[in-house]
Amino acid sequence: MIKLTIIGSGSAVFTKNIVTDLLSIDAFKKMDIALMDIDERRLKYSHDLLNIIADKLNAKPIIQSYTDIKESLKGADFVQSTIQVGGYKPSTVIDFKIPNEFGLQQTIADTLGIGGIMRGLRTIPKLLDIGKEIMEICPNAIWLQYVNPMCSNMIAINKTYPEIKSLGLCHSVQGTAEMLAEDLGENIEDIEYLCAGINHMAFYQKFVKKSNGQIEDLYPRLKALADKIVNDEAKSSRSLEKSEYSDKILHEKVRYEILSCLLYTSDAADE
């Protein structure tokens, strides 16, 4: 039976999404899932939620919860990290508030710029602690690493533990592609794209629509839309969220500003 250990599984939404996807696949319906978190309340919530999901999907996984990382890693084939060092409060709030006092607004603050640097300084030591435990307990496991700042974290992991099979993962590329398609009024199922770069700073080399045997380069339409959004003549479909750190409306303008300047659009999430 395949065993997946999720470190930081108190992140209920993230854990729910990953496990729901896995339990929807026949080969994983009877997998062993070890939930690990230092917050027992959040851990119990995630455990109860996954039991409900498993029932609805007619899956029979073995789900166990741990606050001891060593116990959770025993026999793991895959290890997934979704930790947030310092939590949302105070750490993430500080990453936003202090730069904002000096006029720097950030939309995410977990990868690029000063927010990403501070998050990395907090996070890398803890990830290296996890790596040490993996080396001792399940050295053949594949480490699926979801914690930002992705590139900084993965450089540290790969340099310190080159023996571990580790992979940095993020949803920003496909998420941005869906946003761009939505902004153009297109179905993402008809879109084919090629993206290259580093996490939160990757560029779409190709963004085309394939339909009825025809191929349309969508960049001319994206560039025309970018001019309107940059000049506040239009808004992205995802531009209506307010930030608790600013009175301003957070537009997805950063991607379109990059497009206007560099002629390619990016998955950049930090502003």
Features of the shown structure:
LDH C-terminal domain-like; 6-stranded parallel beta sheet; 271 residues; alpha/beta; 2 domains; 3-stranded antiparallel beta sheet
What does this structure look like?
The chain has 271 residues and is of the alpha/beta class. It folds into 2 domains: 3-171, AglA-like glucosidase (LDH C-terminal domain-like, Alpha-Beta Complex), CATH 3.90.1820; 173-262, no CATH class. The protein has 9 helices and 11 strands. The protein has helices at 12-23, 40-56, 69-73, 87-101, 113-137, 150-160, 172-183, 219-230, 253-262; strands at residues 3-7, 32-36, 62-66, 78-81, 142-145, 165-168, 191-198, 201-211, 214-217, 241-242, 249-250. The strands form 3 sheets. It has a 6-stranded parallel sheet with strand order 3-2-1-4-5-6, sandwiched between helices. Strand 2, helix 2 and strand 3 form a beta-alpha-beta unit. The model is unreliable at 245-249 (pLDDT under 50).
Residues in helices, as a percent range = 40-55%
CATH superfamily heading of the largest domain = AglA-like glucosidase
Runs with pLDDT <50, length 5+?
245-249
Spatial strand arrangement across the major sheet: 3-2-1-4-5-6
Radius of gyration: 20 Å
Largest sheet: 6 strands, parallel
Tally of DSSP β-strands:
11
Strand content: 15-25%
- Principal-axis shape: globular
Average pLDDT over all residues: 90
Secondary-structure element order, N to C: EHEHEHEHHEHEHEEEHEEH
Using the coordinates shown, work out and report the CATH topology of the largest domain.
Answer: LDH C-terminal domain-like
Please indicate the count of domains: 2
CATH class of the largest domain: Alpha Beta
Secondary-structure content class: alpha/beta
Report the total helices: 9
- CATH architecture annotation of the largest domain: Alpha-Beta Complex
